[in-house]
Design brief:
By secondary structure, this protein is α/β, with parallel strands linked by helices. It has helices at about 1-15, 20-25, 30-45, 60-90, 105-115, 130-135, 200-210, 225-230, 280-295; strands at about 50, 55, 90-95, 120-125, 140-145, 155-170, 180, 190-195, 215-220, 235-240, 250-260, 260-265, 265-275. The strands form three sheets. Strands 3, 4, 5, 6, 7, 10, 11, 12 and 13 form a nine-stranded mixed beta sheet that branches. A two-stranded antiparallel sheet has the order 1-2. A two-stranded parallel ribbon has the order 8-9. A hairpin with a 2-residue loop joins β11 (about 250-260) and β12 (about 260-265). α5 packs across α9 (about 280-295). The radius of gyration is 29 Å and the shape is elongated. The two termini are about 55 Å apart.
Length: about 300
């Protein structure tokens, strides 16, 4: 009963009228007056000083009003989250970078599926710009991506980790004998990027102007195609790793990438709209962070 009385009390104070508050809840003025009196009796405190055509708040009433608002907002948020779980409890739409190579995403998906077997995970791959568009269009609930824009207040920007930038080089390329490479060392090389035709110009601009790779660019549709191109010594391919691979594989060597004697790192985050935040989104993002942390410590 007190919860309803709290709502009535807030309405009376906000509208400064018992009549208008009663109209909001489709009850009579006398009924809402009785409910406020019952609330005061239950609290053992006078909340309103009633005058002929107006009223004012007592100190106790002012305190109760302020905290009532906080409690009702918390209850509204609780109800909203509960409804969202009911509406979307069977689907979680996740986007991740097309060029992402690590095992952390797969491990998080497996753990999530094991913990929540009734929830279906729909997975979409894309580059940074495509994932951002998916978030705006709400075709994904959250996106695992690198940070290229300033953080936006409308989004949760959940930091996962800083990934080390490196390049994959064919063992037939003389550069494979190096332990580290600077962007200046790659000026005469072809740089292979994973990007769709629509996004090639955007990706090239980023790697040229932000990463500093002043190269000739080639493009692959996915990571496997890009790796085949590297194996055939058609170029080098920039890629990120949580932890630098120790073993050479498939005729490829992975080498840390530096700029001005400093290892280049990329900031990776899980992004989702604040207004669309749900328990499952937050849970999956937390799993991703834990997987990255484990990989970094191994």
């Amino acid at each position: 009963m007190m919860f309803k009385q709290m709502q009535y009390f807030i309405a009376v104070v906000d509208t400064q009228s018992f009549t208008r508050a009663a109209e909001l809840y489709y009850i009579s003025q006398s009924a809402i007056s009785q409910q406020i009196k019952a609330l005061e009796e239950e609290l053992g405190a006078k909340l309103l000083i009633r005058k002929r055509k107006s009223f004012s708040l007592t100190p106790a009433g002012e305190y109760f009003y302020q905290h009532c608002q906080e409690i009702l907002q918390d209850v509204d948020e609780l109800c909203k989250k509960t409804r969202e779980l009911e509406e979307d409890e069977n689907i979680l739409k996740v986007g991740y970078l097309r060029g992402y190579e690590g095992k952390e995403f797969k491990d998080a998906v497996l753990d999530f599926a094991s913990l929540y077997p009734d929830v279906t995970i729909n997975i979409i791959k894309g580059n940074h710009e495509e994932l951002y568009k998916h978030l705006m269009d709400e075709t994904v609930d959250l996106a695992i991506s690198d940070q290229r824009r300033s953080f936006h207040d409308d989004f949760i920007n959940y930091h996962l980790l800083h990934m080390d930038c490196c390049v994959e080089v064919s063992l037939n390329n003389p550069l494979s004998k190096e332990d580290i490479l600077d962007v200046k060392d790659l000026r005469k090389e072809n740089c292979i990027l994973v990007a769709t035709p629509e996004q090639q110009a955007i990706e090239q601009e980023f790697y040229e102007n932000i990463i500093g790779l002043k190269c000739k660019y080639l493009f692959a549709n996915d990571i496997d195609e890009g790796r085949l191109m590297v194996m055939m010594n058609r170029g080098i391919m920039p890629i990120e790793h949580v932890k630098m691979p120790k073993n050479e594989k498939e005729g490829i060597k992975t080498i840390p990438l530096y700029r001005n004697q400093k290892l280049i790192q990329r900031n990776y985050c899980a992004f989702w709209k604040k207004e669309k935040s749900t328990y499952y989104i937050e849970e999956f993002a937390d799993m991703m962070r834990k997987k990255f942390k484990i990989s970094h410590q191994e």
